[in-house]
Specification:
Two copies of one chain form a homodimer.
Chain A (H helix, E strand, L loop, with lengths): L1 H10 L4 H10 L2 E4 L4 E3 L7 E7 L1 E7 L5 E8 L3 E2 L2 H6 L6 E4 L3 E7 H10 L1 H27 L2 H11 L1 H6 L2 H8 L3 H12 L2
Antiparallel strand pairs in A: 1-8, 2-7, 3-6, 3-8, 4-5, 4-7
Helix pairs in contact in A: 4-5, 8-9
The first copy, chain A, binds a DNA duplex (30 and 30 nucleotides) through helix 9.
Amino acid sequence: MEELINKIKGSITLSAEAEEHISSISKVKAISKGELLIGHGQMVKNTYFVIDGCLRSYGIDKNDKEHTLQFAIKGWWISDFIAVYTNEPATLNVEAIKDSYIIAFNTKDLDEIHSLFPEFEVFQRKNLERHVVSLHKRIMNQLKLTAHERYNVFLKQYPEIEQFTPNYHIASYLGITQESLSRIRAEQLNK
Amino acid sequence: MEELINKIKGSITLSAEAEEHISSISKVKAISKGELLIGHGQMVKNTYFVIDGCLRSYGIDKNDKEHTLQFAIKGWWISDFIAVYTNEPATLNVEAIKDSYIIAFNTKDLDEIHSLFPEFEVFQRKNLERHVVSLHKRIMNQLKLTAHERYNVFLKQYPEIEQFTPNYHIASYLGITQESLSRIRAEQLNK
DNA sequence: CGCGACGTTGATTTGCCTCAACGATTGTGG
DNA sequence: CCACAATCGTTGAGGCAAATCAACGTCGCG
């Protein structure tokens, strides 16, 4: 909870009223590994802030293969943002990949915060800017780099995630198969 | 120019003062095919709004191959957003791929607009939200679909762009080579 | 213990890349 | 106005990175 307030204060200066308001509607919730917070086809009400633990969002292709769009650890936001920002049913799933603590914000509450506290509008814009930066970088990496190089970038960028995430989730984020990632790791060791 | 004002009004209601202010700093500029607006390594001052024509942003890998990150046609914004939002030197290039009309906004002017007109903050947030949606969709397509399927999605999504864009630019956007795209197109015709 | 989840390894296939050559079209200078 | 070069798309032959399919070892847990 302080986690969230500190995060916001890292980007903007937060008025006492805004802090009070946000605290009042924030309820930390414990969820356990494997729990599905958003399922394909549902209308999406919530965006989640991760206090601790790890979630991921992923889609499923026509051969039933999963593809991870995003991981979210402590201090990150996650949802099916496609669904949230377009008001369409979810095309993604969001699940906890370990026991976690989160705060759920429904879209109405967030809209209210935006209209009550213009400062929050700035916070949100900066978040979105950072988000765009990371997505642009990811797309460029996907276009420019080999699977092996992408894996190394991933390790450098998210060393924590590698620790407790099964390999096939990382593979599905990198756009390769579990087997290929295993071979990449083997190759890495023989050096 | 009206192009821009109408675009803004499509998202938010714009006060007369804000409209006046924005108009006063907007200068439409003609640029010709091949012109480079942003070059790798430079500090990036501007974000461009396209009145007419087409630009693209792209990066170059260690084998000197180009990879297109974004196309921008009438009504779109383009820049090296990684550089703009992080204040780092450009990692991308931005060039006109046909004769175009644009408005250049430097970052200071945009910041000023944001602080003077809170309504613009909302506009910017909605733009960023749409941007995030399109990036998420693109990443999911890259993970889920074959090159052939991605090409069809591209055609459906940007029919105008296909008309005047050389094939190798489209290929570099899709993450395949010019030759592969040519074969995909040939296959498409034999059906 | 025995089962399921996870990672690894091997054999084979495949989608796309690379390299190379070749028309078609467009543009340019003599 | 033609000759020539440059640009762009196509096609073929061969190669490679990663996918697929399958089997197996290990670990942790009900």
